[in-house]
Amino acid sequence: MTQATFPDHFSGVADAYAAARPEYPDALFDALADVVPASATVWEPGCGSGQATRGLAARFARVHATDPSTEQVARHWARDGASSDVTVAVEPGERTALADGSAGLVAVAQALHWFDRPRFFAECERVLAPGGVLAAWGYPDFLPPEGMADAVAAYRAEIEPHWPPEREQVDTHYAGYHWPFAALPVPTLWLEAEWSLPRFLRYLSSSSASARCRAATGDDPVARHAAALSAAWGEADEVRTITWPLFLHLRRKA
Q1: Which of 69, 65, 72 is nearest to 108 (CA)?
Q2: Quick count: other Cβ atoms within 10 Å of Cβ 239?
Q3: Fold entry, domain 11-252
Q4: What are the tens digits of pLDDT across the range 21-44?
Q5: pTM
Q6: Segment 154-174, tens digit of pLDDT
Q7: Angle CA(214)–CA(215)–CA(217) in degrees, nearest 5?
Q8: Neighbours of 252 (CB within 10 A)
């Protein structure tokens, strides 16, 4: 899979993605730090605009964050040398410039379903040092806040036909993958965000299904459902808790 042919559903919404994606919880990065030493070099393929990079950089010596999308990399928080411990590069998920056996951790946040997995797993075998860990995590759709189930269901029904087929792999928590390394125990994790209504609507607009719906129909599904979502939310500046189930796979190279 070359840079020109990767399944690119986010370059067109790169600004919204950078501004609206939720932050990962400390408990996730603590789970990684429990099985990988702080001195490790981390390869983070599919880094997007860096939602996971900050947490990785806070716990490990060096992070090499890569993404095949130039638009996403251009919006990465460390692109201008914001952290001396983070390098950012435009690279496909299946190949990195890191040397053989140089990484202690490969960390993939909400991106593994886009990769050519046989090629990616072979690259993990090459780049991970003996005993290194492959970590991959993601989150399916959020749980509707109290009183919003009907409004959210109507919005979801409109965008449902426009989800890329890879989305089903997230919904099943990557079940059925042929992993290259032995599994490690993982904790139960949740992703939470405290958002006002405008931030919540920006998040909905940043999804690949919303973008594909706009492109296919010429109609903005978030704008179409904004009134109903707003009425169910309450005051626009009211802060509500949005919750996603967060799944994690940890695999250690022999």
Answers
A1: 65
A2: 11
A3: Rossmann fold (3.40.50)
A4: 889 999 999 999 999 999 999 999
A5: 0.88
A6: 999 999 999 999 999 999 999
A7: 65
A8: 17
